[in-house]
Amino acid sequence: MKTLIYLAKHTLIVACLFLASCSKDSSSSNSNPTPSGGTYFKLNGTLITPDEVDVTVYDNSIAGGRYIDVYAFKAGVQVLELHMPAAVGNYPAQHGSFAMNNSWLTYQTGGTDPVADYYHSDSGTMQLINFNESGQRLVGTFAFVGNNGADTKDITDGHLDISAF
Fold first, then answer.
1. How far apart are the C-alpha atoms of 123 and 57, rounded to whole Å?
2. Beta pairing class for 46-48 and 118-132
3. What angle do CA 117, 44, 115 make, to 5 degrees?
4. Residues 30/42, Cβ–Cβ less than 8 Å
5. Sign of dihedral through CA atoms 124, 38, 32, 148?
6. What is the pLDDT along the chain (165 residues), one digit of tens a residue?
7. Among candidates 134, 133, 131, 124, which has minimal Cα distance to 161?
8. Terminal-residue alpha carbon distance, the chain
9. Interatomic CA distance for residues 48 and 75, integer angstroms
């Protein structure tokens, strides 16, 4: 009887290990896994991770305050241009005006036509989670629908984590 219980226990353990090793790992089935840090976004569901990100902080005389510009490049081509107030907060993504209560977010295809190749934010949000100018740290999230007048692009799962700018 002890032998039968022993065999049953070990068979159950082996079966559990076999089933666990055969289970589908949901993270490996995702063709566009989201990175854990840095700067990235999804363009119509496809993950884009810029190679270079530049940040400029300046006084915006039109909007009446400090502003941040973020420029992201992929393979030497600018793909993002993000403008937002230089303060922690949640800013609607609108391209209609430069104001201290909204952001202006743009996806760029890399072409040179300022109309056809620039998809300016019609809707969405820019959330600035951490901004420390003296410590040179910028952390935020963004998502928006960009429009060039003829077509739209969905920018989702945007993430900024930038140091030393």
1. 24
2. unpaired
3. 15
4. no
5. positive
6. 444 343 344 433 333 333 333 333 333 334 444 555 699 999 999 999 999 999 999 998 887 899 999 999 999 999 999 999 999 999 999 877 767 889 999 999 998 898 999 999 989 999 999 999 999 999 999 999 999 999 999 999 999 999 988
7. 131
8. 72
9. 11
Whether 79 and 73 have beta carbons less than 8 Å apart is answered as yes
Q: How many CB atoms lie within 10 A of CB 158?
A: 25
Cα(42)–Cα(27) distance, integer angstroms: 17
Q: State both tokens at 87.
A: 């303060």
Amino acid, res. 32:
N
Letter for the amino acid at 137?
R
